[in-house]
Amino acid sequence: MTAEALRRRAFWQILLIAAGLLVLTVISAGSVYLVNKAREDSKWVLHTIEAESQINALLLEIRRAESSARGFLLTQGPDFQSEHEKAVAAIIPALDKLTRQIGDNPAQRDSIEKLSAAIETRLDQFSREMSFVKQGQFDRAIELVREAARGNTTTTITNQANAMIREEERLFRLRTANSDHSQTLAASMTGIGSGLVVLLAMISTWLVRRSARARDEAEARLRDANINLESVVDERTADLREANDEIQRFAYIVSHDLRSPLVNIMGFTSELEELGGDIFRRIGGLAHVSADGAPLAPAGPGEIALEGPDKQLQEDFSEALGFIKTSIAKMDRLISAILNLTREGRREFQPAKIDTTELIEAVVSTLAHQAAEAQAEIHLEPLPNVVSDRLALEQIFSNLIDNAIKYLKHGVPGEIRIRGRTKLGYAIFEISDNGRGIDPKDHQRIFDLFRRAGTQDKPGQGIGLAHVRALVRRLGGTMSVSSELNAGSTFTITLPIAWNVSNRNRDR
Amino acid sequence: MTQPVTIIMIEDDEGHARLIERNIRRSGVNNEIVSFANGTDAMQHLFGADGSGLVQKGNALLILLDLNLPDMTGIDILRQIKENKYLKASPVVVLTTTDDSQEIKRCYELGCNVYITKPVNYENFANAIRQLGLFFSVIQVPPAAP
């Protein structure tokens, strides 16, 4: 899985969540708005119904007033009079209430003005009618009733009221429709919104499942890669081990086979030396004879002194043989060194618990003589104990301390310090001196076989440090040097505190 | 019946063979020296055509053996000599350039009588061979099996 794909997936997830939130917000807002609208619509519907019933109530009161007036006219009964007065008293408040209720509608306002006028007229007629009846002028009262009937006041009232009722009914229909519409809208909005949310949730679930699957696949691939890596590492390690063994064998065979001709060279050089001695003795004998004229048996080897060019010849001969023998001796030392190194490389290491302080004290005591000669003091600080190969550690410390003593500055009392500490499962040892130091450009070179650095005033083959480093590596450690010319040197060795034989030794 | 000891020298390096022979002669040993430059010829001589070793029955031998031979290792020759009933009584002196302690130990385990490393220091070598000469003069070759 690439980083790009991961980023894209995360982007889609965020987008989905954002979309879901947006949909929810819109639905909520829409629902609130639509519910409010529906409530408003219902209110208006209710208002219409109220107005309609108010109109009817008004008409009823007018009819009541009319019929009670007629009753009074016919019977002059006080019941009818009080009935009429109650009805008339109710008409004006009812009319006022109606006027307030439909004040919002300009068309109705017009109608109500007409209605009001008609009602005023009618109420006036009623009051006159009632006063005529009370005064006993029944004819005039009847005349007034007829006049009222002719003037169509009642019809006008009825017509106006009916018109208003029709208008209110129209409004009722319209507002009911509006209300229905709002409610349908709210319902569908909620429905669609819920559907969208469900859809988004499904997409999100799908994405999460897909990502989980991708993660599982990636994990499986990682596991495979790990297993593969292990086998590759094993393979490489085996290759390296084989190469290392090959080098060991090569070094062993080469050094061994080089020795064989060297035995001959040395052997026959010695033979030649003897032959040379014989030859020069004879030359000396002959020279004697020719000089004295009397042959003399040589008294013994080496007793005849050669003279002049013969002597020169003998010296040249000895010199040549001398160089050959020195070179052979040197070559033999080098070959022996390689042999010893390869032998060390083949030696089985035995890990053991080692009291490092005791071990180094023993090493120091064997070097006490050299140290005293070089006027060097060796200080031992507390050292961590390790599990390692005893012989290898002895060789490491003995080489390093020996070097420190060997390469001190002339005329300066030596001070050699051995320090130790532990860090993360490793023991770190430092061997520092105040000696002549090593030029930084030679820091690598001093670890190479047969290479040395600085003034060559001490005997040595250039093997010690190469050997030490090989040992440290085999013990699973590392070593380094820090030094400046004329400023002393510090060799640092890092060894595992608990070296395990299975690390490297068993591989050989 | 006294029988002179024959020295069998198995050494592939002619120079080494010559130096050994010279030093043996210098130490005053005049026994017959038979030289072989490879293992096969030596084995042929020691064990005969049939490989039984019967040809050497009753012969007093001293074997100088180099471990590094072109066609086989001296260790093999040593083992076969020491396993053969006619030859196992003959003293074997192993001569080699190796001073490897493992190899020396192995040779002694197989029954080698003396082990001499050929040092480059000629004086040491010559001394070792001369001492070998002294050794020749004192060894008692066991009586040949009847």
TrEMBL record, chain A:
Keyword Transmembrane helix on entry: yes
EC code(s) of this entry: 2.7.13.3
InterPro entries referenced in this protein's UniProt entry, alphabetically: BphY/WalK/GraS-like, CHASE3, HATPase_C_sf, HATPase_dom, His_kinase_dom, HisK_dim/P_dom, HisK_dim/P_sf, Sig_transdc_His_kin-like_C
Presence of keyword Transferase: yes
Transmembrane intervals: 185-208
GO annotation, biological process: osmosensory signaling via phosphorelay pathway
PROSITE patterns: HIS_KIN
Annotated coiled-coil segments of the chain: 208-235
Pfam family, one: HATPase_c
Sorted UniProt keywords: Coiled coil, Kinase, Membrane, Phosphoprotein, Transferase, Transmembrane, Transmembrane helix
Record's protein name: histidine kinase
Organismal lineage: Bacteria, Pseudomonadati, Pseudomonadota, Alphaproteobacteria, Hyphomicrobiales
From TrEMBL, chain B:
Keywords assigned by UniProt, alphabetized: Phosphoprotein
Family annotation (SUPFAM superfamilies): CheY-like
A biological process from GO: phosphorelay signal transduction system
Domain Response regulatory: start-end pairs: 6-133
Domain of life: Bacteria
Gene3D superfamilies the UniProt entry points to: 3.40.50.2300
Keyword flag Cell inner membrane: no
Presence of keyword Acyltransferase: no
CDD domains: REC_Rcp-like
PROSITE patterns for the chain: RESPONSE_REGULATORY
Pfam families documented for this protein: Response_reg
PANTHER family: RESPONSE REGULATOR RCP1, RESPONSE REGULATOR RCP1-RELATED
Identification of the protein by name: Chemotaxis protein CheY
Species the sequence originates in: Bradyrhizobium nanningense
